[in-house]
Amino acid sequence: MVRLKIPANTNTKPTITITPKDDDAVEKVENVTLTLSNPQATDSADGSVKADRVVIDVDKASGNITNDDKPTVTISANEVEEGNPATVTVKLDKVSVEDITVEIKTVAGGTATEGTGKDYVTQTKTVTIPAGQKSITTTINTIDDGEVESKTTPETINVTGTVESGTVTNTTPATATIKVTDNDKPTVSISGTTVEEGGTSTVTVKLDKPSNEDITVNVTTTNGTAGDGDYTKVTTPSNNARY
After folding, report:
1. Mean of the pLDDT values across residues 51-77?
2. Domain spans of the chain?
């Protein structure tokens, strides 16, 4: 509380200053109410205080404090095995007093291939973070393409988050990268041919699908109905089949 004085025989309009504090919270417009009470007049002749010589007309006034804080939107994504949905998290650094709506969209630029039967198809999701909440999640589907790919370097899908409604600091879309690991392996098979004795039999070692890395396999002969004198055995690593 402060006590204001209006000097006698003047038009002085005393003022007080209210300084709002910057609290870093996202808020609605707030207000402060000022109330007048206990008015008194001081007699100029004898200095006595007279409460009945002044009347309060308007006893209350209010002022508004506007908000200057805004949340910032970020997005992040987890690593996922191909064929499974990736989780994209949309997050605010501070809660908002209004709903924040964000469009999540896959975009070009990653190492994964877009298209039907490939690594993923273009997807757009719209999510809303309710007022008072800091985050929400959505999913982006990936495709098991059946191809054998790198086991050490995941493929990537780029994702953007564009704010469609709500007051935030973002002036450009937020970005995230989904890492997609491969789960495919080739299957090795072997087949032989029928050959007349004295001829050469061709044995084929085959993969059911191409691999992005060399595949080495030992080929060893063992007796069936043919004995040791019927053929020359293959036993040494130098006869490894390599792809």
Report:
1. 85
2. 1-68, 73-181, 185-243
**Residue 126 main-chain phi, psi, to 5 deg:** -115, 125
Specify whether the CB–CB gap between 219 and 240 falls below 8 A. Answer: yes
Q: What is the 3-state secondary structure (H, E, C) of 13-39?
A: CCCCCCCCCCCCCCCCCEEEEEECCCC
SS3 (DSSP) at 206: strand
120 DSSP 8-state letter: B
- Region 136-143: mean pLDDT is 98
* Cβ contacts of 82 within 8 Å, gap of 6 or more: 119, 142, 143, 144, 145, 155, 180, 181, 182, 183, 184
**What would you report as the CA-atom Rg of the chain, rounded to the nearest whole angstrom?**
40
Instruction: Please check whether residue 120 is in contact with residue 109, taking contact to mean a CB–CB distance below 8 angstroms.
Output: no
For residues 6 and 10, give the distance between their C-alpha atoms in angstroms, rounded to a whole number.
Answer: 8
Assign residue 132 a region: left if phi > 0, alpha if psi is -120 to 50, beta otherwise?
A: left
pLDDT class for 156, splitting at 50, 70, 90?
A: very high
What is the pLDDT averaged over residues 82-102? 96
- Would you say domain 73-181 falls under CATH 2.60.40.3450? no
215 or 87, greater pLDDT:
87
If one counts every other C-beta atom within 10 angstroms of the C-beta of residue 97, the result is: 16
pLDDT tier at 127, thresholds 50, 70, 90: very high
